[in-house]
Write a structure and sequence with these properties.
- Two copies of one chain form a homodimer.
- Chain A is an alpha+beta fold.
- In chain A, about 40% of the residues lie in helices and about 15% in strands.
- Chain A has a six-stranded antiparallel β-sheet. A two-stranded antiparallel ribbon of chain A has the order 1-2.
- In chain A, helix 1 (about 5-20) packs across helix 4 (about 65-90) and helix 2 packs across helix 3.
- The interface of A and B includes residues 91, 107, 109 and 119 of A.
- Chain A binds a DNA duplex through helix 3.
Chain lengths: ~220, ~220
DNA sequence: TTTTCTATTTTCACTTCACTAAAACAATTA
DNA sequence: TAATTGTTTTAGTGAAGTGAAAATAGAAAA
């Protein structure tokens, strides 16, 4: 069976909303993430239920079925592979690729995506550090530690971002934080939670708590 | 201004139908090439006229405006660049790429296509030998000679195909005719127009008139 | 515990886009 | 001029969306 771009967008949204926490997903939350009104979402939920991609009872919220999850992962696989392509081959910066990948993710057969995967050298992570499902849709999510969880003196590497909005990514660029950057926590200010860090042995700098809450690190 | 995939498909179809001959294009011809009924075409023609992409008077057929032509060329540029990508980077064969490129051609900004162009090394021709418009949408159509126009003894190279349907391309593959193949006309049978050729100094073979009418050659 | 309130969700009536079948209407040709 | 072919109009469909009104669940108040 095959699905419209719109259906795919709903499925992907539900999947992402399910990532943290395992409560049922609400109509309003979905509406927010697909940029539509609740009324439209209700309509679509009926359709997706009909197609057995979600379980859904009126007023009770929604959750993906096994099959729905499979579809979601295959869309995410496409999305992230295209993102790698845009950055590695077309030389895009990581803050510009989301919208284009959003379009590309609805294009192409399974076969073509597997060929793309091969061409890219079977990358494990996308340009934001998010894991790419493999051809059998296995996705291994490395345990993620937020920068705010590190203590003074801890050293590590930047391995991902939680917020991958263009504004945040551009901010990271200007303060020289990139995927793979060495990072050391020099100080944490109690009163506002801001963090003094050293990136790649450059001069120390300070970032806000909000920023720190959106950076994933490995610790060594 | 931006256009829906459907609108783009109509514009592209009109452009291609205008390629040989400069009469106005008929509703039925368009219907055939976009796989829709004439009634749908009439609807769309009104819309495209409204947007000043075509000139159109009831019952008088249609023709692209300068702007319409510009759009058409930019779609063709996208289409052909993606085709090059599919063949050169993803290792597709030339008979499998049309449908995928058909989807990809509606994706991506001008900027991204220019980056793709750069990444591919500014190719001049697509995998079927058709010219790719450059970034300013200039398209130089090399004079095309059909294999049927060659005489016995003429030598040349295969530079393109007129029919680029999967069936024809697969046929060419099996008889070992590829873009760039050396070709020599050994004989022509008057009674049915079939042509005896030698490809890349392999053993002689015979192809039908219909086949020969769909192969473009350079002559030396 | 029952009632009331409020925020969320659903239903309903209607829009736009692309499409179709059938009827009506031009244009062409015999 | 009549017949045929091609084109447009009309009326209606399905997908995706909207605003407004009605329905409902869950929390707060009685």
């Amino acid at each position: 069976m095959s699905f419209s771009s719109t259906e795919e967008n709903y499925i992907k949204a539900i999947f992402h909303l399910s990532e943290d926490g395992d409560e049922n997903i609400s109509t309003n939350d979905i509406a927010r993430s697909v940029n539509a009104k609740a009324a439209s979402v209700t309509d679509m939920l009926k359709k997706l239920k009909e197609k057995k991609l979600i379980t859904y009872e009126k007023y009770q919220g929604v959750r993906l079925t096994k099959e729905g999850e499979r579809i979601a992962k295959s869309i995410i696989r496409k999305h992230r592979l295209w993102e790698v392509f845009l950055v590695e081959k077309l030389d895009y910066s990581w803050d510009k690729i989301h919208d284009i990948a959003e379009q590309l993710e609805h294009v192409g057969s399974q076969e073509m995506i597997d060929k793309l995967d091969k061409f890219l050298g079977y990358p494990k992570l996308d340009p934001h550090g998010d894991p790419i499902p493999d051809a059998s849709l296995n996705i291994k999510s490395q345990k993620q530690t937020l920068l705010t969880e590190l203590s003074i003196g801890d050293k590590g590497k930047v391995v991902g971002v939680k917020d991958s909005s263009a504004k945040f990514l551009q901010y990271l660029d200007t303060v020289n934080i990139h995927l793979g950057s060495d990072i050391e926590v020099k100080d944490v200010f109690e009163f506002d939670g801001s963090v003094v860090i050293q990136i790649d042995r450059k001069p120390k700098s300070t970032i806000s708590k909000l920023a720190a809450q959106n950076i994933f690190c490995s610790v060594k």
